Amino acid sequence: MTHSSASLPLTEELARRAESGSLQLPVLPAVAAEVLSCIDGEDCDARSLAELIQKDPSLAANLLRVANSARFAPNEPIVSLTQAIGRLGLATLREIALTVAVKGAVFNVPGHEAYVAKLWRRAHASGRLAQEVARTRRSNVEAAFLCGLLHDIGAPVILQGLVDLARVNRATLDAAAIEDAVEALHSTIGARLVQDWKLPDWVHEVTLNHHDPQSASSHQDLVHTVALSDALAHWLLEDGGEGDAPGLEHLPPLDLYQDDFDRLCEKGVEITQEAAV
């Protein structure tokens, strides 16, 4: 079937379901939800985080796999969560736990592995770059990482929704239809998802407004942080870092300067050359 005769009606139906609230959204596993809540709380110490993670054997196993990856390069293998906390620190362990939990909950659409992998690489790079922006500004590094990681979370949700609709209607999806739907709907559907997951309002503001930070009713610095990080991640991953780096318009609102931007671009090259978790 052609893009106009099959995929477009599916996109319109997806938009209607999103607008009415009838679109089925992924459920965040209970353990992952508790891990995410640690990002906004002060009562999550190393022991309580380890106890949380141990409730989910799959999450624990994946976390240890990541802790032993090239990025963290432990001198000796890390074989327990307690050891991981001691070696990597609570903040890093929390970052890994968030990453593994979100990837498993949403970035998994059978039959579209290559496209989802591309979405994941960009999401993870955006989170890491947002960390660097926050570190430069001496603002909340963990909040920046979470927002960078989740800002395009509507994209895999849209893909899964289109796949489900295509199966029910015995229709064929094409790449152009998927891209059009993602571009048009990912911010609103992503914002609805993070609300459904009861994440902090600053995550909602970033997810909804990262393409237009001036529209954010609050937390504009965080929205600009992620907008800049997303632009650089796209430039480095999709364009190979060719041409002028984008995102200069976000420097004044963030009180950043050209030297800061140049260092961020250099760090971005390192980040995007690493394999995503």
Number of strands: 0
**What is the H level of CATH, i.e. the homologous superfamily?**
Hypothetical protein af1432
Distance between termini?
Answer: 37 Å
On the 0-100 scale, what is the average pLDDT?
88
The residue fraction in helices comes out at 55-70%
As residue ranges, the low-confidence spans are: 1-5
Q: How large a portion of the residues is in β-strands, by DSSP E? A: under 5%
Which CATH class is shown? Answer: Mainly Alpha
Overall tally of domains: 1
Radius of gyration: 19 Å
Pfam families: HDOD (PF08668)
Protein name: HDOD domain protein
Organism: Saltatorellus ferox
Domain HDOD: 25-213
Account of the protein in words:
It comes from Saltatorellus ferox. Residues 25-213 form the HDOD domain. This is HDOD domain protein. InterPro entries: HDIG_dom, HDOD, RNase_Y/CdgJ. With 277 residues, the chain is mainly alpha-helical. It has a single domain, classed as Hypothetical protein af1432 (Orthogonal Bundle). 70% of the residues lie in helices and 0% in strands. The chain is built from 14 helices and no strands. The model is unreliable at 1-5 (pLDDT under 50).
Short structural summary:
The chain has 277 residues and is mostly helical.
Question: How is the secondary structure organized here?
Answer:
Blueprint: H1 3-20, H2 30-38, H3 46-54, H4 57-67, H5 81-88, H6 90-106, H7 113-137, H8 141-150, H9 154-169, H10 175-196, H11 201-209, H12 220-238, H13 251-254, H14 258-273
Helix pairs in contact: 1-9, 1-10, 2-6, 4-6, 5-6, 6-8, 7-8, 7-12, 7-14, 8-11, 8-12, 9-10, 10-11, 11-12, 12-14
